[in-house]
Amino acid sequence: MTLLDQPELSTKSAAVNEPGLDLVPIANGQLRLAEVIGALSHALDITEGQPPGHCQRCCWIGFHIGCELRLTETELRELYYTLLLKDAGCSSNAERLCELYAHDDLRTKHDFAQVDTNSLKQLASFVLTHAAPGAGLGSRLSHVLNLMRHGEQLADELVMARCERGAQVARQLGFPDTVAAGIQSLDEHWDGRGRPQRHRSDDIPLGSRIALVAQVADVFYQVGGASAARNEVLRRSGSWFDPRVVDAFLRAAEEPGFWTVMAAEDFESRLWALEPSRQILDPTETRLDAIALAFAQIVDAKSHFTFGHSERVGNYAAILATSMGFSARRTAWVRRAGLLHDLGKLGVSNTILDKPGRLSADEWASVKRHPTLTEEILARIGPFRELARVAGAHHERLDGCGYPRGLNDIDISLETRMITTADIFDALTAARPYRAALSIDEALIIMERERGRGIDSLCLDALVSAIAKFDIQAADSVSGA
Prior knowledge:
Layout: E1 24-25, H1 33-47, H2 54-68, H3 73-84, H4 94-101, H5 105-112, H6 120-130, H7 137-149, H8 151-172, H9 177-184, H10 206-235, H11 243-253, H12 267-273, E2 279-280, H13 285-300, H14 309-323, H15 328-340, H16 350-353, H17 361-368, H18 370-378, H19 385-392, H20 414-429, H21 440-449, H22 457-469, H23 475-479
Antiparallel strand pairs: 1-2
Helix pairs in contact: 1-18, 2-3, 2-10, 2-11, 3-9, 3-10, 8-9, 9-10, 10-11, 13-15, 14-15, 14-20, 14-22, 15-19, 15-20, 18-19, 20-21
Organism: Metallibacterium scheffleri
Protein name: Metal-dependent phosphohydrolase
Domain HD-GYP: 284-479
């Protein structure tokens, strides 16, 4: 039996048959599901190259469209979570997109969001300006020709990966099929020229039709304000968009404060107040773990080099916590921090994550930002604030030479030291762009050199004991990668 086979550390989330993870009425001290999903949606925004709060703003815009369409309370509730989770599959195509364009996937996604795919002129211009922009003429030409010749097939592939994975995440979190379907068909167009199934008109779920309008409206609002958003949505009416949804959007957009509230300091509280039925997530261990696992898998999907990494780190950290006398509840908390420790890597381009050679100073600076992003995102969730500090410090060192803050040993919690130990062990025993996976013995030799400087001695001893007790295999063997 391996460490990852331990039943108390199973990575399988509990089956949830009822939508919304058995939500209960709001009471003091309880946590709304919207707050958790909404806060974590900031990670999805950075993966899509969008300004922070994109999914939340789309939720505001789309929910008001739903109100104008006089949707039922159940339909509004399903729409609300479709909008917050619309980009849940966004990391699944990042590596492939980066390979096809030989360009920063975050920048590519950001710029492509403004392209009308029905316009051959816009598509051609985009390919010419974004395909291998820093490469030589031969390489650029090769990428451009590949994208031009196989554009339809490649676009279907990218959208399919993104939308199918997003729908899976919604189901994993216990949402009904209507939410999953709304996410899966996000890129379908009213005129049948969308992707990946070429559905048209009323064959497209209403949640998808509303979410697409909301998405484009926010993208162009960020670029040129309310008039730019209105003009672009109106221009695509009847092609991309259901005209009835466009009319509802135009009516909603005329309401006082519709646009300005999205920049207000209390915007998030107003957004949470919209949640139909005023229902919240009772923050049980199982329910929060299901969310943590889902977002860990979103992070790990960004590159095949990180496949399963966050889950393994969470499990390794938990076994260390157990062996060092932590309670079952605190051990589960440590595992959750391990699952989410790399959330900020969603904001690092795959040109960096998958680079086989030495990183430049700017690239290294981008990598070193990821723990800060992790902490900032997790700190948006009240019950996760301590977890945010613990997870965000996983690259700090006992000798003060770590990042992002250069903390000394007295400032680094034992829980962080566990996650750091687990993270280093998994990183060494898994393949990376610049080297093959190391054996466990090779990894322990390297880790021993860091004892008392980069790695806590008690945690390292606990890891060695766990390896002796369980049949722990190298990461690539465990993950099947």
